[in-house]
Structure formats: C-alpha cells, structure tokens
Amino acid sequence: MLIIEDIQVNRLVVLAVKEKENEINIRLAHEGEVPDFLATRAITEGEEVYVTIKNRETWKVEAGADIQAGVQVGTDW
Q1: Tens digit of each residue's pLDDT (9 = 90 or more) over 57-72
Q2: Sign of torsion, CA 51 36 41 43?
Q3: Which among 75, 1, 77, 10 has a CA at the least distance from the CA of 42?
Q4: Which of 15, 27, 47, 70 is in the most buried spot, having the most CB atoms within 10 Å?
Q5: The model's pTM
Q6: Under a CB-based contact definition with an 8 Å cutoff, are residues 11 and 39 in contact?
Q7: Residue 57 confidence (pLDDT)
Q8: Burial of 67 (0-12, 13-18, 19+ CB in 10 A)
Q9: Pairing mode of beta strands 12-17, 24-28
Q10: Cα gap 55→53, rounded to integer Å
Q11: In whole angstroms, what separates CA 16 from the centre of its chain?
C-alpha cells in the first residue's frame, strides 16, 4: 500500500482509493471517520508499506487533550 501523506507515529489512519484503478492507499483519518488502522511508526508520503493486522483490543494513540483511560477516541482532524 502507498502512503499519500506524511503520517506521524500513533495516528489513526484509513484506507483510501485513489483515482487509479486497483490502487489502495493509506492516509490520516479525517474528523468523524472510523479508523481502519493505527500508524505504529512515522511514515512518509510516497512510501510503500505492508499492513500487519493484530488482534489488539486497545490502541496507543496521541490525543489532542487530556482524556481518561478507557474513553473511546475519535478523529478530530
């Protein structure tokens, strides 16, 4: 999969289909979108990556403000 923008570690990301046929990309999740994945390292625009699916019940993400443990997070980009 191809990264279509710079993404910092611990950010929520989604699959995005570009206009090219059969091309699946990854980008930052926008406000209100349900994330597909979590970026576990910083990745750069244009980089090709493999996605590893793990059975995790929680994700370590960076919040824009203080939140309590166990609170569901969403995108506010």
Answers
A1: 777 777 778 888 877 7
A2: positive
A3: 10
A4: 27
A5: 0.73
A6: yes
A7: 77
A8: exposed
A9: antiparallel
A10: 7
A11: 11
- For residue 28, what are its two tokens? 């930052």
- Beta carbons of 76 and 35 less than 8 angstroms apart: no
Token output for 19 = 């206009």
Could you report how far apart the first and last alpha carbons of the chain are, in Å? 22
Instruction: For residues 24 and 15, give the distance between their C-alpha atoms in angstroms, rounded to a whole number.
Output: 7
For tokens 């910092």, the residue is 8
Query: What six digits make up the tokens of 22?
Result: 């059969």
Cα dihedral 46, 51, 56, 62, rounded to 10, equals 0
